[in-house]
Amino acid sequence: MSSITETLQDVQNQLLEQAEEVGALRFGVFTLKSGRISPYFFNAGLMSSGKILNTIANAYAATIIAGLNSPTSPLPPFDVIFGPAYKGISLAACTSLVLSAVYGRSYGFAYDRKEAKDHGEGGKLVGVPVQGKKVLILDDVMTAGTAVRLAIASIQSAGGEVVGVVQLLDREEVGKDGGSTVDEVENVLGGRGRVQSVLKMKDLMRWLADNGKQGQLKAMETYQQQYGRKE
């Protein structure tokens, strides 16, 4: 049986291949909202088929298991997986299913609405109650971290404790002030290891090298030297 590290790398490769196939991962010259000129663009919203959702969920699940078992920067134990509306809802639901079916770990699942509901069960949060529970948030890409910060506030107001975040892609960049969103969110949640990532820029670069995509790799290396976060 392969180790969780081997499983994670295999599913990372599958995810990158499928993302490129559906146009969610593109290489070229792209102007980001920050004004930076990036050699790649990642749009998780285009990853919307059953095939790629299965791959994404397996990638999240493997990342979570690896994080829980990490000897250096462990992900804290948790009770509930939370998906911020709207993209995070399917990510959290599918990942909860895989964690149960593949790893035998059953977690509660919850998500929020954009606006509170004033009829039926009411409220802003849906799913298993988070009061008194330790919660793990799933996100796609944390740029400014706005969605994650709103989710943290919603969970805390409902009596839950956010212990970690797992994002789909960490661009491993610093902001204009020299800091990074990952560092900021980890500080809010209690320190190193509280934010884990399915993919990092270095994983993308490894995949480019393994597949002989030297032109794209060189552009990525140049971009990393200019904007990359230093460990």
Tally the beta strands: 8
Strand order of the largest sheet: 5-4-3-6-7-8
- Strand pairing plus helix content: what structural class? alpha/beta
Rg, alpha carbons: 18 Å
Shape summary: globular
- Distance from N terminus to C terminus (CA atoms, Å) equals 32 Å
Overall residue-averaged pLDDT value: 91
Strand content: 15-25%
The helix fraction, in percent, is 40-55%
Number of helices: 7
N-to-C SSE string, H for helix and E for strand: HEEHEHEEEHEHEHH
Regions with little confidence, pLDDT below 50 for 5+ residues: none
Largest sheet, strands/sense/barrel: 6 strands, mixed
Task: Describe the protein in words.
The two termini are 32 Å apart. The chain has helices at 4-21, 50-68, 87-103, 146-157, 181-189, 201-210, 214-227, and strands at residues 25-31, 37-42, 80-83, 108-117, 123-127, 134-141, 161-170, 195-200. With 231 residues, the protein is of the alpha/beta class.
Which tags fit this structure?
alpha/beta; globular; six-stranded mixed β-sheet; two-stranded antiparallel sheet; 24% strand
What's the SSE blueprint?
Blueprint: H1 4-21, E1 25-31, E2 37-42, H2 50-68, E3 80-83, H3 87-103, E4 108-117, E5 123-127, E6 134-141, H4 146-157, E7 161-170, H5 181-189, E8 195-200, H6 201-210, H7 214-227
Parallel strand pairs: 3-4, 3-6, 6-7, 7-8
Antiparallel strand pairs: 1-2, 4-5
Helix pairs in contact: 1-2, 2-3, 6-7
